[in-house]
UniProtKB/TrEMBL annotation:
This protein's UniProt keywords: Signal
Leader peptide range in chain numbering: 1-21
Protein name: P pilus assembly protein, chaperone PapD
Length: 264
């Protein structure tokens, strides 16, 4: 008698996710921003959509904390466990539990209400909101194994105080390590700063320029970040000047660093 192996496959995503069983979940926008003072409240809407043509989704909404590591990767923590958490200030309206028929979408209100007694001096607080499927769908893997598929989507919540924005990054170091250039910077402003790090190499002997791959970055106040530019394996030997640029913020602020090195 052939035995079937039943597995629960949990797929964590931040955008629309279609899978073989025609299960799909979309939550927009991927980031929600609140500007609200302690003792006040603000509401924003997200739209949750069932992109499946055949499956009804039973869904729940939950909250966690999150932060970036020094490479910009997301780290997830229990709700209310970090100093920058706003998870406990969030209310989901009208309910954290609901169902969507195939093709149906629904607007959900998120209420952010920092307590009047808030005493910390942090300019930004954050949380991660998850929309999770509660009724896994039967499917078969590529190897023929019976599995159950559920989907989960996370979006980021940001809360800041209603004060003048100061997006400010400070380049702390620019160095070479083996086949990489490492640009280190810190967010010393009072708001999130997102942008692009770019780097161009100039061969001092030949004048040839080489443009390295741009790197998109995200940062929060107090974050220290490292971005790594990989040197091409075909880069000619010689002396170089590397020019790194951080381009960020609504006003396209630019910060520049230069490094001289030898490629041997």
């Amino acid at each position: 008698m052939k035995r079937s192996l039943h597995l629960l496959l949990l797929l964590l995503i931040t955008a629309v996710l279609p899978v073989a069983a025609q299960t799909g979940l979309s939550v927009t926008p991927p980031r929600v921003y609140f500007t609200v003072a302690p003792g006040q409240q603000q509401r924003q809407k997200i739209t949750v959509s069932n992109v499946s043509k055949t499956s009804t989704l039973d869904l729940s909404i939950s909250l966690n904390d999150w932060s970036y590591d020094d490479k910009g990767n997301n780290m997830i923590f229990d709700a209310g466990s970090t100093a920058v958490s706003c998870a406990k200030w969030v209310a989901i309206l009208p309910s954290s539990f609901f169902s969507l028929a195939p093709g149906e979408h629904r607007d959900i209100e998120i209420q952010m209400a920092p307590p009047a007694s808030l005493s910390d001096t942090l300019s930004v607080h954050t949380a991660m909101l998850y929309v999770s499927q509660l009724n896994p769908i039967d499917d078969v893997s590529q190897k023929g194994t019976n599995i159950k598929v559920a989907v989960r989507t996370g979006i980021k919540l940001y809360q800041r105080l209603p004060v003048s924005r100061n997006a400010n990054l400070d380049i702390e170091n620019f160095s070479k390590s083996k086949e990489e250039l490492i640009l280190q910077f810190a967010n010393i402003g009072n708001v999130w700063a997102d942008g692009t790090a770019s780097c161009e190499l100039l061969n001092k002997q030949t004048g040839k320029k080489t443009t390295l791959k741009d790197i998109i970055f995200y940062s929060l106040p107090g974050n220290k970040r490292k971005v790594f530019f990989t040197l091409p394996s075909t880069l000619e030997k010689g002396e170089y000047v590397a020019s790194a640029v951080l381009n960020y913020g609504d006003e396209a602020t630019v910060k520049l660093a230069e490094l001289e090195f030898k490629n041997e």
